[in-house]
């Protein structure tokens, strides 16, 4: 590691921990303050926090790598994600913000499900909390693995040292500052990612005289890389676009909508968030595309396509700047890990400890349990990450599909269909999760290929879960007047804005 890169990285760590300590002093000393920031996030922090926690390291490594290998046809996944994120802001954000406050101030997604349907048996809460804890522990582990490999490949440290550095910094600011620290650090990390994904494409493109030269060089490698429909089938396009469906059920993203300070701030958050997303996704795709031409033109010794951003950062920039750019990758990884740690911690605290072990626990006790839960989940994630064969991308893909299918239809229908019932919600959650698992692991093949190789598992999971919610809700007793009155109040609150 060069001294310039070390300085940039050290400054980044100091800023992250400093924000955590600042948030610790500003956060209300209760569970609502620790887990949801007291519902006081501004539109800018909400938007960039949602975006940074969503994108993770895949936007700086996975997406450029996909473009490098598959060419312009890999843009379909970006189209789907942009559409899904926009609909999430437009459809889910306003009603979820209003409804979670009216439903006895629900502060977690399992808490919202229970209060939305007055589920005194806690079935919905427990089922959704189990899904969150299992998937997010594995999801967090994939981020820790990515951090370990980044430190190993870019900074010359051991893989295991990278695990502990990545997890240690994230746990420190999450442990002390809670949701406010996570959101504020996400905002800073989002800004770093934004600058990096503008700067690297511009500098890399300057190595070519014009766009025509770049296109000709890419075509000399493989003309199919220039085609939007090259090498993809109709089902392949549907599968790529279907990634957008996952947004409606991602707890670490939609919890930002619950925390924004006012319904009136949501349009501003949507404009900021979507502008940020369009720039960053476009920049990531361009990096992969330019990478094909650059490597061919310079005959560079280049291996893993997912490291094209790192390749450019180290080759084209001064060590101080390359350290900043490498910190952008770490920022993307850490922003997602911190959000997942906090959501897992909130479920362990609110949905298990408080419900089943200590119903009369004080706010101080719950805060302590929440902080201990952050450390426990991080410890399990590190233990899982010791298996160096951990598959990062497939794990992220599976978790995204699992959350999208299990929670997405429930979130949307619970906010827009007053006839939905508790039994319908349970049926939909179970159907979505089981369908995804069967699609992934059932010994069923078509011409020797797995079902997932033909159609992304979120599609059948989302569709069947929606059908299950509707059919079971219609077959069971309608919700009480108390529930429909709360539903109407949330609708009126949104319409008033």
TrEMBL record:
Keywords: Amino-acid transport, Cell inner membrane, Cell membrane, Ion transport, Membrane, Sodium, Sodium transport, Symport, Transmembrane, Transmembrane helix, Transport. The chain crosses the membrane at residues 6-24, 75-92, 124-145, 157-180, 187-205, 225-248, 276-296, 308-333, 366-386, 392-416, 423-442, 454-475. It catalyses: L-proline(in) + Na(+)(in) = L-proline(out) + Na(+)(out). Pfam families: SSF (PF00474). InterPro entries: Na/Glc_symporter_sf, Na/Pro_symporter, Na/solute_symporter, Na/solute_symporter_CS, Sodium:Solute_Symporter. Belongs to the sodium:solute symporter (SSF) (TC 2.A.21) family. Catalyzes the sodium-dependent uptake of extracellular L-proline. This is Sodium/proline symporter.
């Amino acid at each position: 590691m060069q001294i310039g890169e070390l300085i940039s990285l050290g400054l980044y760590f100091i800023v992250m921990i400093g924000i955590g300590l600042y948030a610790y002093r500003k956060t209300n000393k209760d569970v609502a303050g620790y887990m949801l920031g007291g519902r006081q996030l501004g539109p800018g922090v909400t938007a960039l926090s949602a975006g940074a926690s969503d994108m993770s390291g895949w936007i700086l490594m996975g997406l450029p790598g996909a473009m490098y290998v598959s060419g312009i046809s890999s843009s379909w996944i970006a189209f789907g994600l942009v559409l899904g994120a926009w609909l999430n802001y437009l459809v889910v954000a306003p009603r979820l913000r209003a409804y979670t406050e009216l439903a006895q101030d629900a502060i977690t997604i399992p808490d919202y499900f229970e209060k939305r349907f007055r589920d005194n048996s806690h079935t919905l809460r427990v089922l959704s909390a189990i899904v969150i804890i299992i998937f997010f522990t594995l999801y967090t582990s994939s981020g820790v693995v990515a951090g370990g490999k980044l430190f190993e490949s870019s900074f010359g440290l051991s893989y295991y040292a990278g695990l502990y550095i990545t997890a240690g910094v994230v746990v420190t600011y999450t442990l002390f500052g809670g949701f406010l620290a996570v959101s504020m650090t996400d905002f800073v990390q989002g800004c770093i990612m934004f600058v990096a994904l503008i700067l690297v494409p511009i500098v890399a493109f300057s190595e070519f005289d014009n766009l025509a030269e770049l296109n000709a060089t890419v075509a000399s490698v493989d003309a199919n890389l220039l085609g939007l429909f090259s090498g993809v089938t109709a089902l392949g396009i549907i599968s790529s676009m279907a990634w957008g469906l996952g947004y409606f059920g991602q707890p670490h993203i939609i919890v930002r909508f619950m925390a924004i300070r006012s319904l009136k701030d949501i349009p501003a958050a949507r404009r900021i968030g979507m502008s940020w997303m369009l720039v960053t996704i476009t920049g990531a795709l361009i990096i992969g595309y330019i990478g094909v031409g650059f490597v061919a033109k310079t005959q560079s010794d280049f291996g893993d396509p997912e490291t094209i951003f790192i390749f450019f950062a180290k080759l084209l920039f001064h060590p101080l700047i390359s350290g900043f750019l490498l910190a952008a990758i770490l920022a993307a990884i850490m922003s997602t890990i911190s959000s997942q740690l906090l959501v897992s911690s909130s479920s362990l605290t609110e949905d298990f400890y408080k419900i089943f072990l200590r119903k009369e626990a004080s706010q101080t006790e719950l805060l302590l349990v929440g902080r201990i839960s952050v450390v426990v989940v991080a410890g399990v994630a590190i233990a899982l990450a010791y298996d160096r064969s951990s598959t990062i991308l497939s794990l992220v893909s599976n978790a995204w599909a699992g959350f999208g299918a299990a929670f997405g239809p429930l979130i949307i229908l619970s906010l827009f269909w007053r006839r939905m019932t508790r039994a319908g919600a349970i049926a939909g959650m179970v159907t979505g999760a089981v369908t995804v698992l069967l699609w992934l692991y059932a010994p069923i093949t078509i011409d020797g290929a797995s079902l997932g190789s033909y159609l992304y598992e979120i599609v059948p999971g989302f569709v069947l879960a929606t059908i299950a919610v509707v059919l079971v809700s219609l077959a069971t007793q309608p919700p009480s007047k108390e529930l429909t009155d709360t539903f109407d109040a949330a609708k009126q609150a949104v319409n008033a804005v």
